[in-house]
């Protein structure tokens, strides 16, 4: 009887052990979670500027970047960042000389090119200038979630808002004005596009020169917001810089 009981216990233990080692059908496989874990690490390294000068999103991360951009997390991240910027704005006392300034980048800071990059598998395929121009001219862009809220607050608070973009003035000037207007960006001080003298210069050099010019005009740059590190590096970067997420492309 004792042996029979021991045998039953052993059989039950064997069954339990087999069941415990089997994965439920909804549990991600080790291979799938390793791939998505890599893509999350890659995206975090990109956002922290630890990986630089990358040309395209790793092919295996297309689905990860798509899920991030359109699945709700991108919007949640933007909302937290914009809330933080608004808290900072509330600490600033503006002067009455009209020289309190704020800088916003344009692409994927004010206006979203997400649907252009959808055609590029969310950055797995490289940027093409001809296709991008057609996209900009088509006016099918949208506002970046939450940034219009920030823009309206900046204007309402009395900041002079400068929109500084690496877009070429000659080929994209008109389209950019229309893109901004269509998405509700009114009342900014100046839209500054890349002119011929800055052609071929890095974004860091070009945007530094623009900010230097503003500083020489007497403006105090309280804040600077962009989706690229090159929007926020170099000279005269501003009192505070804020990096918006963008795992789809890198601009040096
Ligand atoms: Mg940008």
From TrEMBL:
Entry annotated with the keyword Signal: yes
Signal peptide (residue range): 1-22
Keywords: Glycoprotein, Signal
Stretches that traverse the bilayer: none
Pfam families the record matches: Acid_phosphat_B (PF03767)
MF terms in GO: acid phosphatase activity
CDD domains reported for this sequence: HAD_VSP
Family, as annotated: Belongs to the APS1/VSP family.
PANTHER family for the chain: ACID PHOSPHATASE-LIKE PROTEIN, HAD SUPERFAMILY, SUBFAMILY IIIB ACID PHOSPHATASE
Identification of the protein by name: HAD superfamily
Organism in which the protein naturally occurs: Perilla frutescens var. hirtella (Perilla citriodora)
Lineage: Eukaryota, Viridiplantae, Streptophyta, Embryophyta, Tracheophyta
């Amino acid at each position: 009887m004792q042996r029979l009981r021991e045998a039953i216990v052993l059989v039950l233990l064997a069954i339990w052990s087999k069941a415990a080692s089997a994965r439920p059908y909804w549990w991600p496989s080790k291979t799938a979670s390793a791939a998505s874990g890599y893509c999350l690490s890659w995206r975090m390294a990109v956002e922290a500027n630890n990986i630089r000068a990358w040309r395209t999103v790793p092919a295996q991360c297309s689905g990860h970047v798509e899920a991030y951009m359109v699945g709700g997390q991108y919007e949640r991240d933007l909302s937290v960042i914009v809330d933080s910027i608004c808290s900072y704005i509330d600490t600033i006392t503006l002067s009455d000389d009209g020289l309190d300034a704020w800088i916003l980048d344009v692409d994927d800071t004010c206006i979203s090119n997400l649907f252009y990059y959808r055609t590029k598998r969310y950055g797995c395929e490289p940027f093409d200038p001809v296709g991008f121009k057609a996209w900009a001219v088509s006016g099918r862009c949208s506002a970046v979630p939450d940034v219009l809220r920030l823009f309206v607050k900046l204007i309402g608070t009395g900041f002079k808002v400068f929109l500084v973009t690496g877009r070429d003035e000659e080929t994209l000037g008109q389209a950019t004005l229309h893109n901004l207007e269509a998405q509700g960006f009114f009342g900014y001080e100046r839209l500054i596009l890349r002119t011929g003298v800055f052609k071929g210069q890095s974004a860091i050099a070009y945007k530094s020169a623009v900010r230097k010019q503003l500083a020489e005009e007497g403006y105090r740059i309280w804040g600077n917001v962009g989706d690229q590190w090159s929007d926020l590096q170099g000279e005269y970067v501003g009192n505070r810089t804020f990096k918006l997420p963008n795992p789809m492309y890198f601009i040096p």
